[in-house]
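Q: Got a minute? One more chain.
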Amino acid sequence: MAGKTSKTQVTLTRKAAAKPSAAEPILLSGGNPQIAKGCGEAPVQAYIAVMPGWKSGVGRRLDALITRTVPNVHKAVKWNSPFYGIEGQGWFLGIHCFTKYVKVAFFRGALLQPLPPGHSKQKEVRYLDIREDDDIDEAQLAVWVEQASQLPGVRI
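A: Always. Here it is, folded:
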């Protein structure tokens, strides 16, 4: 029976072919990268590196702006999203990829002036959605980041 392939071998081959390689990120619903949780710079940079398409450039710009504005910022990836905070004081901001935009969540955004434009079902949270062709007002974003970093953070 040389040359025959069993049904089990075919099934195993198909399963192996369906798995992405280690170099390919797994994208969750809406195109958000699946990244293992972790604290520090490395998991955040790993997330940014696998943000799909144009979103990776936005991620790099956001991370650089946040780090410049809050030099002592604490970083982590939780629930497949980068979080930024002040160590021992909680998180003030998170980033998440969606199909057509990158969402910046200000966890105490209702206290920022002027208010970030995106409403939330959560009373204190405000959002900024960044789409592919949007001009990012980095000066305004830096003001929000600085204000947010000075407010009590949230425990997540």
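A: Helices lie at 7-18, 41-49, 55-69, 138-150.
Q: Perfect, thanks.
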